[in-house]
TrEMBL record:
Family indicated by similarity: Belongs to the UbiH/COQ6 family.
Name of a matching Pfam family: FAD_binding_3
UniProt key word Flavoprotein: yes
Flavoprotein among keywords: yes
Domain FAD-binding: 6-341
Pathway linked to the protein: Cofactor biosynthesis; ubiquinone biosynthesis
GO molecular-function terms, A-Z: FAD binding; monooxygenase activity; oxidoreductase activity, acting on paired donors, with incorporation or reduction of molecular oxygen
Annotated keywords: FAD, Flavoprotein, Monooxygenase, Oxidoreductase, Ubiquinone
InterPro entries: FAD-bd, FAD/NAD-bd_sf, Ubi_Hdrlase_CS, UbiH/COQ6, UbiH/COQ6_monooxygenase
GO BP term, pick one: ubiquinone biosynthetic process
Descriptive protein name: Ubiquinone biosynthesis protein UbiH
Signal sequence extent: none
């Protein structure tokens, strides 16, 4: 007899596994299917990326029992410095002491380890790793998938959480608006001579932003940051081919020496950058979360946080419906999720796309205009406060799980 559960989550990455844990907190059982091997995903050096976890997302981790496990590895973001190629007119987003930090930085590996450990211990999660889905079914009374080994999994609601190339989204025929920025993000870990003082830097160049994200000092006491350097697609092969010393020299130039001498730690990696947004995030007995629904430029570090807001909203909608005796796949529950998340996700996507294009215009006059606007924001505390609330993820209608 098939093990039918409330949720069938296809994709067990950061968003998909957080969803399974959040749903379990509300009494919902799930199948989580992922084609990756968790041992590979958590291996040293597999993924050099780091993620900024907003205040609201941290509340979600608190509410699902992950915060205590993660706290020791968190590097607080006390301020964000935004500058146009290090010219005069920068903005400093620094909250008041009573407002706390702007977020916390974690290596993606750290987040995965914590999520996977919690998932293994949660009885309401059936985790099917290294598994390939060969067929998907969505019917009037439920959903199902068949795996390559012949296993059949059933549930009331199917959730696509596989990321940008979501086969579940494609299988459902959901239309996607997308374009390629012709940019590539080069990711590397840096050790540097001077401390970062918990400041995240966003240095905008016409070719793309250069971001420095603070990390905790390593065991040897070296100061560390995660770097995300956006370069034109045509330039990426040359940048990646540089020797470690040559690469460090170019990084120091882009940083204008703010952290002193730099050493590259570990392997460099790169990721193509594009935009996509679905026409809808639901269909019959189907919901999309995270990058399966919306892929944005990493310019503001909001991609993962946007997916975690999806998680909080979807779990709240489903839990509210089940208290009323509704099936998790009920159409009216999915409409509520669509209404709640559709506009917010689209607004953030448009904002990040707009920033990418505005700062990508070369020339002295566009730079002067940008810096004039940035100077105005720097002098207006209320406007700065609004931007900081957006960065912390505490604006708008928040799901209960994302509240402190």
């Amino acid at each position: 007899m098939a093990d039918k559960r409330e949720l069938l989550i296809l994709g067990g990455g950061l968003v998909g596994m957080t969803l399974a844990l959040a749903a379990a907190r509300r009494g919902m059982a799930s199948h989580v299917v992922d084609r990756a091997d968790p041992a590979e995903l958590t291996a040293e050096g597999y993924d050099a990326r780091a993620s900024a976890i907003s205040t609201a997302s941290w509340h979600l981790f608190e509410n699902i029992g992950l915060a205590e496990r993660l706290e020791a590895d968190a590097c607080p973001i006390s301020s964000i410095a935004v500058t146009d190629a290090m010219r005069p007119g920068r903005i400093d987003f620094t909250p008041q002491p009573h407002e706390g930090t702007l977020g916390r930085m974690f290596a993606n590996r750290t987040l995965r380890l914590a999520l996977f450990e919690a998932a293994k211990a949660e009885k309401l999660i059936a985790w099917h790793s290294s598994a390939t889905v060969t067929s998907r079914e969505r019917g009037e009374h439920g959903v199902a998938v068949t795996l390559a080994d012949g296993t059949r999994l059933e549930a009331s609601l199917m959730i696509g959480a596989e990321g940008r190339g979501s086969p579940t989204r494609e299988d459902a025929g959901i239309a996607v608006a997308k374009w390629d920025y012709r940019h590539r993000a080069i990711i590397a870990g840096l050790a540097h001579e001077k401390p970062h003082d918990n400041v995240a830097w966003e240095i905008f160049y016409p070719a793309g932003p250069f971001a420095l994200l603070p990390l905790l000092d390593d065991e040897a006491g070296r100061h560390r940051s995660a770097m995300v350097w956006t370069v034109a697609e045509d330039d990426a092969p040359g940048v990646l081919a540089l020797s470690d010393r040559g690469f460090a020299v170019e990084v120091e130039k882009a940083m204008h020496g703010i952290f002193g001498a730099v050493e590259v730690m570990g392997e460099r990696s790169s990721w193509p950058l594009g935009f996509h947004h679905t026409a809808t995030i639901t269909a019959a007995r189907l919901a999309l979360v995270g990058d399966a629904a919306h892929g944005i430029h990493p310019i503001a570090g909001q991609g993962l946080n946007l997916g975690l807001r999806d998680v909080g909203a979807l779990v709240e909608v489903l839990a509210d419906g089940m208290r009323l005796g509704l099936d998790p796949g009920d159409a009216q529950l999915l409409r509520r999720y669509e209404t709640w998340r559709g506009l917010d996700a689209f607004s953030v996507a448009l904002a990040t796309d707009g920033l990418t294009r505005i700062f990508g215009v070369p020339g002295k006059l566009p730079s002067a205009v940008r810096r004039l606007g940035m100077g105005a924001i720097q002098r207006l505390p209320q406007l700065k406060g609004w931007f900081m609330d957006e960065a912390r993820g505490v604006s708008g209608k928040l799901p209960e799980m994302l509240k402190g």
